[in-house]
Inverse folding.
């Protein structure tokens, strides 16, 4: 490469994995309007601009209200295909070699959409993204934590015909008042079936929920995990065991988990030796894809080139992939580092 590059250019070419994004949170406004028209679903907004103006959230619940409502535009397998394919195209353009995506079936099945319809579209898009762009991906089904555990168990049963195509299960939705312990049996069954398990914890909820996720649910990664910093012993445990945290900085900003990006704990987490990763969560709602998250954190927190590489390496180390794929991705990061010029 000729001449010094900017941090944004370095980030753009840096190979990485994305491990925390929700397919339903990646419907861009133009696709959203198109699907509403195509499926004749009544929505509150006349124009894309009006829809975008609604993307201002007091907290997680205010976001979730809009997010679950937005799921109504997804009806046919083709709709699920288009939203998934669009996300994977954008991720590929961001240097994402491997993406692990969340999907919340209850937001669809409870409206009468068959799980088979949803998965036909999503899995079809994942297959095409791999053959057309070379990006690999995995699917994690998330149970809504404000619903009873029995419904999560039902979800596990319904998903069994696709077990070979699924990476695992997670927990999402309204956190406060719905502790991980509510889903102990669900997670036990998921683990018994040899699925990977993750859970959202410590986004709005306390450090105790992060601890419960690890000790009781035995999750392999914690989604968000910000609140762990309230408990030094927990931070030591996460660091010792190198349990990955899938942090979502722009999401945290939009949902008022942090007041501003300069106050975001990402740098503190890196300094504490945590295996922290950067992700977009719900990119169409929170104002950016994974590289926007890297870039804005770099600028706000003064992250160094070597810290950016650590974040990318962490994403690969935390991915649920076979050893061969992991080594190939780590080698791609090493090769890029050797090739890329220092930034100015
Ligand atoms: N937290 C919990 N549930 C979610 C989120 C989130 O940030 N995004 C989509 N579902
Ligand atoms: Zn999330």
């Amino acid at each position: 490469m000729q001449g010094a590059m900017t941090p944004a250019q370095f980030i753009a070419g840096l190979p990485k994995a994305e491990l925390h994004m929700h397919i339903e949170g990646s419907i861009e406004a133009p696709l959203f309007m198109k699907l509403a028209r195509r499926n004749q679903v009544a929505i509150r907004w006349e124009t894309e601009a009006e829809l975008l103006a609604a993307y201002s959230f007091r907290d997680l619940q205010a976001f979730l209200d809009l997010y679950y409502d937005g799921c109504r535009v997804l009806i046919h397998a083709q709709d699920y295909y288009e939203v998934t394919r669009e996300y994977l195209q954008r991720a590929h353009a961001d240097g994402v070699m491997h993406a692990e995506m969340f999907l919340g079936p209850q937001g669809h099945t409870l409206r009468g959409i068959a799980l088979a319809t949803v998965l036909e579209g999503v899995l079809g898009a994942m297959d095409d993204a791999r053959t057309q762009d070379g990006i690999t991906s995995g699917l994690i089904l998330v149970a809504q934590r404000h619903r009873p555990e029995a419904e999560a168990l039902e979800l596990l049963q319904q998903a069994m015909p696709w077990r070979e195509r699924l990476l695992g299960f997670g927990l999402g939705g309204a956190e406060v008042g719905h502790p991980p312990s509510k889903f102990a049996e669900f997670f036990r069954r998921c683990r018994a079936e040899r699925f990977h398990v993750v859970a959202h914890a410590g986004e709005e909820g306390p450090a105790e929920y992060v601890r419960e996720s690890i000790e009781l649910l035995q999750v392999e990664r914690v989604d968000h995990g910000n609140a762990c910093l309230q408990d030094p012993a927990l931070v030591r445990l996460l660091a010792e065991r190198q349990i990955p945290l899938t942090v979502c900085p722009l999401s945290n900003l939009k949902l008022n988990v942090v007041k501003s990006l300069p106050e975001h704990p990402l740098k503190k987490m890196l300094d504490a030796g945590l295996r922290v990763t950067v992700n977009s969560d719900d990119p169409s709602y929170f104002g950016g894809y994974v590289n926007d998250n890297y870039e804005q954190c770099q600028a706000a927190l003064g992250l160094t080139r070597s810290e950016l590489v650590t974040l990318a390496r962490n994403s690969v180390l935390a991915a649920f992939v076979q050893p061969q794929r992991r080594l190939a991705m780590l080698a791609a990061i090493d090769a890029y580092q050797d090739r890329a010029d220092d930034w100015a």
Summary: The chain has a mean pLDDT of 97. Residues 22, 25, 60, 67, 172-173, 200, 203, 251, 281-282 surround hypoxanthine (ligand 1) (CB under 6 Å). The beta strands are 16-22, 96-103, 136-144, 168-172, 196-201, 221-224, 245-247, 276-278.
